[in-house]
């Protein structure tokens, strides 16, 4: 029997993930503070309603609520350990918005979003980590966003947190791999109270439902999951992998790198059509420098 923690599972996407995982047989800790989409307020009803739904579908001990904020990962993991004695799956999904342009953003807007998304993801992961290492098994799904991967006006705080979650996850995947802990990232798209103000056509809205995202979470949480450290975009039934692409670039000769030579060679620096690569590690950067210098010497 597998045990899953889904944060922010009282609404929207998190609720769909909790239901999906329970359908696959997992017992679920349904975590939610029950605040509004700006992170204001607190109530137990959101988590309780999802617990009730899972228990009525699966059986009475198939879900338990946790009302802690994700900033307190220890408390959420303790709920899982007290109820079920293990943690196999963590879906770091909880989120809030404080959308505002950089010009008008307050430190509070920044800190609140960072605290829930980035610190929360770290806190729950860190609390589950020793348990997963000990049992040599873990599946962690972290939630990023196209806003973070590509940038979005009015969301510098949210985008920074979401890109941070991607970087955090790529590192956790490298560290966890040897203990069979797989950490992957999704950037979902679905209508929820978080996205209700985004304009779209009726057709698209009809398909942009959490149920078209949840199966990917089910796959990444599965014991047969074949991937680690991958980032996926997913929405409306569309699933796609995102990766870095790097141009082959150029090596300037010693003393030849100036503002003018960079401007003159910008088209080469930015050329992805010839010999572009897909780096996956820091060492890929180091070896690219080494290869470029070796090339220079041999010429
Ligand atoms: P939602 O607002 O419906 O659900 C988020 C849930 O997180 C809420 O139930 C809320 O009470 C809970 N929550 C907020 N702060 C919390 C905290 N400190 N501790 C525990 N729970 C907390 O939003 P939605 O759309 O379902 O989003 C889920 C995740 O997916 C978020 O991380 C969001 O950033 C991400 N996302 C959603 C997209 C979409 O299209 N809906 C797009 C890209 C990313």
Small molecules (ligands, ions, cofactors) in the structure: 1,4-dihydronicotinamide adenine dinucleotide
Which structural class do you get from the secondary structure elements?
Answer: alpha/beta
Shape: globular
Instruction: Say which CATH homologous superfamily of the largest domain is assigned.
Output: NAD(P)-binding Rossmann-like Domain
Family: Belongs to the short-chain dehydrogenases/reductases (SDR) family.
Keywords: Oxidoreductase
GO molecular function: oxidoreductase activity
Protein name: Ketoreductase domain-containing protein
How is this structure best described in words?
This is Ketoreductase domain-containing protein. Belongs to the short-chain dehydrogenases/reductases (SDR) family. InterPro entries: KR_dom, NAD(P)-bd_dom_sf, Peroxisomal_Beta-Oxidation, Sc_DH/Rdtase_CS, SDR_fam. Residues 2-197 form the Ketoreductase domain. Pfam families: adh_short (PF00106). This protein is of the alpha/beta class and 299 residues long. The protein has two domains: 3-242, Rossmann fold, CATH 3.40.50; 259-298, no CATH class. 45% of the residues lie in helices and 14% in strands. The chain has eleven helices and eight strands. The chain has an eight-stranded mixed beta sheet with strand order 3-2-1-4-5-6-7-8, with helices on both faces. Strand 1, helix 1 and strand 2 form a beta-alpha-beta unit. The longest helix has 29 residues, at 107-135. The radius of gyration is 21 Å and the shape is globular. It starts with a strand and ends with a helix. The model has no long low-confidence stretch (mean pLDDT 95). Bound molecules: 1,4-dihydronicotinamide adenine dinucleotide. 1,4-dihydronicotinamide adenine dinucleotide binds at residues 7-8, 10-14, 31-35, 37, 39, 46, 69-70, 93-96, 116, 120, 143, 145, 187-190, 192-195. 1,4-dihydronicotinamide adenine dinucleotide binds next to helix 1, helix 4 and strand 6.
């Amino acid at each position: 029997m597998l045990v899953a923690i889904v944060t922010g599972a009282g609404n929207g996407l998190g609720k769909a993930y909790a239901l999906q995982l329970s359908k696959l047989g997992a017992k679920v800790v349904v975590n939610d503070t029950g605040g509004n989409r700006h992170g204001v307020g607190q109530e137990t009803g959101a988590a309780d309603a999802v617990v009730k739904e899972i228990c009525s579908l699966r059986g009475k001990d198939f879900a338990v609520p946790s009302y802690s904020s994700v900033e307190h990962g220890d408390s959420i993991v303790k709920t899982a350990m007290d109820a079920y004695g293990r943690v196999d799956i963590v879906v770091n999904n909880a989120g809030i918005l404080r959308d505002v342009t950089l010009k008008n953003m307050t430190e509070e807007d920044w800190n609140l979003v960072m605290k829930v998304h980035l610190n929360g993801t770290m806190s729950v992961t860190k609390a589950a980590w020793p348990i997963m290492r000990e049992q040599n098994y873990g599946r962690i799904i972290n939630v990023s966003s196209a806003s973070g991967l590509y940038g979005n006006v009015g969301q510098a705080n949210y985008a920074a947190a979401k890109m941070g979650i991607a970087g955090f996850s790529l590192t956790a995947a490298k560290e966890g791999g040897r203990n069979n802990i797989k950490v992957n990232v999704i950037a979902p798209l679905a209508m929820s109270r978080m996205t209700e103000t985004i304009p779209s056509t009726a057709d698209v809205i009809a398909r942009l439902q959490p149920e078209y995202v949840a199966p990917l979470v089910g796959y990444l949480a599965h014991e047969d999951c074949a991937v680690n450290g991958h980032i996926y975009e997913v929405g409306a039934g569309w699933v796609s992998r995102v990766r870095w692409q790097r141009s082959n670039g150029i090596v300037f000769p010693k003393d030849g790198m100036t503002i003018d030579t960079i401007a003159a060679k910008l088209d080469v620096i930015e050329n992805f059509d010839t010999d572009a690569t897909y780096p996956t590690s820091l060492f890929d950067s180091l070896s690219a420098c080494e290869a470029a210098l070796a090339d220079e010497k041999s010429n």
